[in-house]
Amino acid sequence: MGDYMRFAFMCREKKQGINAKIAVVGAGPAGLAAAGFLVCSGYDVDIYDKLPLPGGLMTFAIPSWRIPPNRVLEGVKELEEKFNVKTIYRTKVYAGEPVHEEGDDFTEKKISIDDLIAQYDLILLATGTWISKIPKMPGVNAKGVTTALEYLYKWKIYEYNLASIKPPYAKKAVVIGGGYSAIDAAEKALKTGAEVHLVYRRTIKEAPAGIYEIERVKREGVSFIELASPLEIIEENGVAVGVKFQKMTLGPPDETGRPKPVPVPGGEFTLEADLVVFATGESPTPPVNPSKAESLGLKLNKDGSIWVNNIMQTSISKIFAAGDVVTGPSRIGPAIRSGLKAARFMHNWFLAKKGKTTTQIGVFA
To answer: Does residue 238 sit in the same domain as residue 318?
Structure first.
């Protein structure tokens, strides 16, 4: 891949030929991979993103030691300079009354989906998962309680000189969760000098981040506590000072197929904390207020993700969707594959609609 991510890896220069414009909404891995495929197929592509830099969560939440941001930025620069991709930042594409999402604070301009439908031949929605889920419990609104996405994002914008206020340092941090964002938040808190407890309700064997990652951060100094679920945030004068946990044991499998954590009677304990980070998942954030989706004609699933058919087309024929806004939170590899798959379907659908034939090279699974 060289020193940077080549999003247009299918070709070396822009092809001439298809007189059509595509809007890609979201400059994360799915959107960028799709843009690269589409410029190599001869389309003009404009990318819209609410943030001031491309990459989505790759740039704004994943630590630099996992993905150096320059690799993403240089890859997008190639799309702009060699392939005439136009990137429109600090712009939120949305339909209806906006719902606050993480990362919205850089938005300077709003564009409605209706405007894009009028201006473009095809649209790809790849807006990811920018709302964190926090379980309901007493004390979650206390100062010092945050989400992994918000915590990592705040550090990132400070490191990019996009924010002048340094995120607060913690002395004792408790991170709740067992996925990659939990690992990343625990590692960040540790690197900034905190004593860190990473607490997960199942065992290390069930943790989505995997045994290797948890063992790695344990070696770095993170204390890992398994089989414990938070009951409440202990606060004093509106500020978090600790977390009360319930010890758990594993029962029969739940709907995810993993053993269900069951409370152990009397098994309560407390950890001191001036920073509590919930890494308990994110929700898909389609660029439409759920109340407006029906009148727009854009079908959403129960979990808020965008409904797509077997060619990744939404209920509006010229709009396709890809990445985490369709699948829910995933990893970079699957998001890139999803973007490539959607781009290939868009290309085939558009040519078929124009009455042209194409030999379809096998679709990415």
So the answer is: no
pLDDT at res. 1: 42
User: Which pLDDT value is given to residue 60?
Assistant: 95
CB 277 within 8 A of CB 189: yes
Q: Does 189 lie in the same domain as 60?
A: no
Q: Are 117 and 15 in contact (CB under 8 A)?
A: no
Q: Provide the CATH number for the domain around residue 210.
A: 3.50.50.60
Confidence label for 14 from pLDDT (cuts 50, 70 and 90): confident
Half-sphere exposure of 250 (CA within 13 A, CB side): 13
Query: Does 115 share its domain with 141?
Result: no
- CB count, 10 Å around CB of 119? 12
Domain ends where: 258, 278, 298?
Answer: 278
Distance CA 243, CA 214 (A): 21
Residues 6+ apart with CB under 8 A from 137: 230, 231, 232, 233
pLDDT score, position 362: 41
What is the mean predicted confidence (pLDDT) over 261-286?
95
Task: Write the DSSP string, 243-259.
Answer: EEEEEEEEEEE-TTSSE
Same domain, 295 and 260: no
Query: Residue 349 belongs to what domain range?
Result: 21-130+282-353
At residue 35, the pLDDT reads: 98
